[in-house]
Write a structure and sequence with these properties.
The complex is a heterodimer of chains A (195) and B (195).
Chain A lengths: L18 H14 L5 H11 L5 H13 L4 H44 L3 H25 L10 H17 L4 H19 L3
Chain B lengths: L2 H17 L8 H11 L5 H13 L6 H14 L7 H35 L4 H28 L8 H16 L4 H13 L4
Helix pairs in contact in B: 1-5, 3-4, 4-5
Classes of the chains: A mainly alpha (195), B mainly alpha (195).
Chain lengths: 195, 195
Amino acid sequence: MHPSPSGAAAPLPPQPKSPRDLFVSFTWLALQGFGGVLAIVQREMVEKKRWLTPEQFLEDWAVAQVMPGPNVINLALMIGDRYFGLRGAVAAVAGMLAIPLVVILVLAVLYAHYAANPQVAAALRGMGAVSGGLIAATGIKLIPQLRKHPLGFATCLAFVALVFGAIALFKMPLGWVLLAVGGVACAWTWRRIPA
Amino acid sequence: MQWHDWLALFGQYLLLSLLSISGAITTVPDMHRYLVAQHGWLTDAQFSSSVAIAQAAPGPNVLFVALMGWNVGLNAGGGIGAGPGAWLLGLFGLMVTMVGIMLPSTTLTYLATRWGHRNRDRRGVRAFKQGMAPVVVGLLIATGWVLAAGNHAGDAPAWHLWLLTAAAALIVWRTRLHLLWLLGAGALLGAVGFV
């Protein structure tokens, strides 16, 4: 749709009309997100609907990532909250989850029906091997960003290796690793950055 | 499963929710340790297929948690062929894990984002954001590793599974190919018997 050229006044920034609009928008967004929703969030929220500027998106994304919980859910929560408070937050998160949950259950039931078929099992094994690669690559892609880190690149890589070894090789409980390694990393960073 | 097992499962997911910095996916190794290795509530195949189906389906990746709960419930009810009782138990399991993984993190994010936004220039906030960065990177790579290793059931040294994982990681790292193509290729390679 084209914006009407006749009204000369500066247009208000686009924003969701209602919690219902948030729910529908986030449902639609989630249903497009095969293999992860983040790229879709950026395209829909920033480029198409323009509820967020690129700067807002980056800032919100950083916070969504640092907070515990699924990143895109946190992001939906923050956007919903900004416009309609708690109701908006609930509507956005429900939109992200409700319909996709039904879809995934149907897929799981279909899968269970055919799981005895060795080809289906093998196909899923192949997909499992790929998804391991996808997630590892997400981590690898972030490594260059550590070059600008206050601790220095080499120290950061040592922390990466330490966490990897503790979790992947020695199977240590996540909580202790986060507490110990994360605690040291944060405290060390705190000393290195200006007040 | 007894009622205290369900309670323990719920508690474990409440805890993991708070630990899921940078997404629920980083708690996958710990879920594997808890559900498969420690309690035997899920098989290795069910575990990695839960993640693989959620990756292939639309929607946020956190829905793999729903499938894990669903499978735990189904197993407790005697399997998917055991009738409506098992299905209800599956839905109950789904509720337990999803509410567990979502409730603490969304509540915390909701309360903390406003505070964090107001105080984003504080030294402590910056130290936390930056200090966690290398830890998050290490966690993501470890998660990919644990997922890939989970496919190696039995005692066959499946070097081609590792090859597939590495190739997928390399392609995601170096190209902008849509993830769905990769998952499809993995499924195809599985179906034709390569992995």
